[in-house]
Amino acid sequence: MNTDNWVQTWGAAPQAPDAGLGSLDGCPPFADVTLRQVVRVSGGGRHVRLRLTNEYGTGPLTIGAARVGLAAADGDVRRGSDRTVTFAGRPSVTVPAGAPMLSDPIDLPLAALDLLSISLYLPELVESVTCHDPSLDTGWLIAGNAVAGGIPPATAAPLPVRALISAVAVRPTAPGRAVVVLSDSLADGFGSTPDTHRSWPELLAERLIRRGGPAAYVVNQGISGNRLLNDGLGTAGLARFDRDVLATPGLGHVVVSLGHNDISISFAARDDESGDGFLAMFPGSPVTPADVIAGYLQLIARAHERGVRVHATTLTPDEGAEIHTPDGEKARQEVNEWIRTSGAFDSVWDFDAVWRDPARPGRIRDHLHAGDFLHGNDAGYQALADSVDLSLFA
């Protein structure tokens, strides 16, 4: 593994602004404004590169100026770390509708788990903001060109989504490999404490970094509400797999933790088909366990063609959640049995066994869920991360 190659160290799967949880509703327009966002990288490196995204934009996106640096307290940038971001040597760029944009390499050494501050100045109105909804890291909308740093003023508005940034890559100081998690809200960190980096992929990254070795780069490509087979909250897993996973620089491992929403939505009580209820966010026909399994086999085949190992997590319990039904529970168990026994994946991570209550196997243990019987809390996500066998990442 050549250390001159790029390895992705952070990611946020792009979504259309109307294909998320609605966090942008009521947000001020993006025009003559600076977006300042903080991301925590996993593994470090000696140079950094940004991937900006206009992939769901309806028109060209103009970045008037951009800077990065190490994040300081209160939204400021650590003194001496501030760097100008350029594109083909220029300090501004126009990103075509439907396209991403890679920055030039930036001479900014990053240690593992460093907090990176990214500021983008948008001089013109952005009518369709490619984003990741929600963001669990505090961000700011600052009037005018504020890329040069400083604590955001009291007039700054909160930025509730991850906007226009989809990836951070580094040139590692030692050989590195990326572990990419394709998932839904389970990996997206829904239910964890904001600004604490307690999603299970981030906690797994901490374990891998403490252990040492090349697989210290964990990329979280979870989308809350995402499904494997149908669009809705984000593009379906099968459709976004090439962009969000296989195109990852330095890819070595894929973790498939997707399919729960396919099952639960398919078997949910259909009492709000008028289009006004929760299920209206999830178009497409109901699917069966066999459909989900066929989707898994497609992901495995496409990853193995690239020489990439594929790991799978079992589907976690949801009894007590509003979406739970007895038929859905039967289907979840059928999918889990196939994941455990088929031998199709290179390894199986039994998240169902980690979370389930021995007295009620269809329900998450009370101290591990976020109060909704569906998502983890900080302790729940820590238990998932702690259950992963690190020897799988030699």
| Class derived from helix and strand content | alpha+beta
Question: Which overall shape is indicated by the principal axes computed on the Cα atoms?
Answer: globular
Radius of gyration: 20 Å
Number of helices: 8
| Count of the domains | 2
Kindly summarize this structure in a few lines.
It is built from 8 helices and 21 strands. The chain is α+β, with helices and mostly antiparallel strands.
Architecture overview:
The chain folds into 2 domains: 162 residues; 216 residues, SGNH hydrolase (Rossmann fold). Helix content is 20%, strand content 24%. The chain contains 8 helices and 21 strands. The strands form 6 sheets. Strands 6-5-9-2-11-12 form a 6-stranded antiparallel β-sheet, with no helix packed on it. The protein has a 5-stranded parallel β-sheet with strand order 16-15-17-18-19, sandwiched between helices. It has a 4-stranded antiparallel β-sheet with strand order 1-14-3-8, with no helix packed on it. The two termini are 13 Å apart. This is Lysophospholipase L1-like esterase.
